[in-house]
């Protein structure tokens, strides 16, 4: 069992708790770098898909997990990021400039949308963002001269420093590009949580009245969180559209928003690791179901099987493990560290609420 002695506030916001944790993450990074030499192209494509979903999940996690604002409309920001990036590339900008600009444009639009939307709370905010996702589908069709409408658009070729990034001819380069993006987003996310703004996000999530009493500007904090969340999700949407190579209004439906929300709930709401664990589940679940149905000798596709199984998984997690996969791992790790002194009720769920929450 490792014990951390904190002698200053700086120890509480360190990037890594100790040298051992830094070593573990360095080893994981080395494994991710070596992954193209360890698996074939098919599973490398699935790993790339996991990284893309992780980027989108980190965007929603920042808003829902860190700030406590439920959103069912992040598929709209995925679409905005994708179309903004592609349109900028078609206008002549190189990918290395069009990609971040697409995320910035999406973030600014998200911040503008947040100004009226964040006057709502809870389920009302979720319904408002869901309406945004449904409206985006129609807007893509209506703006056919720019979006291609129902016919969709083909992703332009990607060149980074003269190297062509193609999913079929160069899957390794695509994987590394997605890995670099998710690493940059994760470092940004982690450092944001260590900054005063990140602590303001947590204060708003726990109690808006208490946060306001401490001098936090609630409206400004929510708007910034929504804008940053939309920008990160836009980057993930751009990667998703470019990876698919062909996309239209049906690529970014509101079902994608629901999957994204379920992903972070199953992975572990409020944890960076939860976005990655949830992405692994949502990316590999179709393959697992396909292998399972083939092993049973079934040749008939079952409509809605994937959605039904994922919904069942989410219900089970909400009932028996609300902290998700990463929360379960934390409990197992704590039990092993404290064994044989761990108590059965040490993780009992709290059923009481702050008095300030009742006044909300």
Structural commentary:
The chain is mainly alpha-helical and 360 residues long. It has a domain of 213 residues. Helices cover 69% and strands 3% of the residues. The protein is built from 15 helices and four strands. A two-stranded antiparallel sheet has the order 1-4. The protein has a two-stranded antiparallel sheet with strand order 2-3. The longest helix is centred in the middle third of the chain and has 27 residues. It is globular, with a radius of gyration of 21 Å. The protein starts with 18 loop residues before the first helix and ends with a helix. The C terminus is likely disordered.
Number of helices: 15
Radius of gyration: 21 Å
**Which percent band covers the strand fraction?**
under 5%
Low-confidence stretches: 351-360
The averaged pLDDT comes out at 85
Structural class: mainly alpha
Widest sheet, order of strands: 1-4
Instruction: Provide the helix percentage.
Output: 55-70%
- The total of beta strands comes to 4
Tell me, briefly, the overall form.
globular
Question: N- to C-terminal separation?
Answer: 41 Å
Q: How do the helices and strands follow one another from N- to C-terminus?
A: HHHHHHEEEHHHHEHHHHH
User: Largest sheet at a glance?
Assistant: 2 strands, antiparallel
Organism: Lutimaribacter saemankumensis
Membrane topology: Multi-pass membrane protein
InterPro entries: ABC_transp_permease, LivM-like
Keywords: Cell membrane, Membrane, Transmembrane, Transmembrane helix
């Amino acid at each position: 069992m490792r014990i951390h002695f904190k002698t200053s506030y700086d120890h509480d916001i360190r990037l890594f708790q100790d040298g051992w944790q830094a070593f573990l993450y360095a080893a994981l990074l080395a494994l991710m770098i070596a992954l193209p030499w360890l698996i074939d192209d098919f599973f490398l494509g699935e790993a790339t898909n996991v990284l893309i979903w992780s980027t989108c999940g980190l965007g929603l996690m920042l808003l829902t997990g860190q700030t406590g604002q439920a959103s069912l409309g992040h598929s709209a920001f995925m679409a905005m990021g994708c179309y903004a990036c592609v349109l900028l590339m078609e206008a002549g900008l190189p990918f290395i400039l069009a990609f971040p600009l697409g995320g910035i444009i999406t973030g600014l639009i998200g911040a503008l949308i947040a100004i009226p939307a964040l006057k709502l709370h809870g389920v009302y905010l979720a319904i408002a963002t869901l309406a945004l996702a449904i409206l985006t589908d129609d807007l893509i069709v209506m703006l056919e001269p720019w979006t291609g409408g129902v016919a969709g658009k083909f992703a332009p070729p990607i060149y980074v420093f003269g190297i062509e990034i193609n999913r079929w001819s160069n899957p390794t380069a695509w994987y590394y590009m997605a890995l670099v993006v998710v690493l940059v987003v994760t470092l940004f996310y982690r450092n944001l949580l260590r900054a005063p703004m990140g602590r303001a996000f947590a204060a708003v999530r726990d109690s808006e009245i208490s946060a306001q009493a401490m001098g936090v500007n609630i409206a400004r904090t929510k708007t910034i969180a929504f804008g940053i969340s939309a920008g990160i999700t836009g980057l993930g949407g751009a990667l998703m559209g470019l990876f698919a190579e062909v996309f239209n209004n049906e690529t970014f439906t509101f079902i994608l928003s629901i999957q994204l929300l379920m992903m972070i709930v199953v992975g572990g709401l409020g944890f960076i690791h939860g976005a990655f664990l949830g992405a692994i589940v949502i990316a590999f679940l179709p393959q697992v179901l396909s292998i399972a149905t083939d092993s049973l000798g079934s040749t008939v596709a079952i409509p809605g099987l994937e959605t039904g199984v994922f919904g069942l998984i989410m219900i089970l997690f909400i009932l028996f493990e609300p902290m998700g996969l990463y929360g379960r791992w934390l409990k197992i790790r704590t039990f092993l560290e404290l064994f044989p002194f761990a108590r059965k009720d040490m993780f009992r769920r709290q059923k009481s609420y702050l008095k300030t929450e009742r006044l909300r």
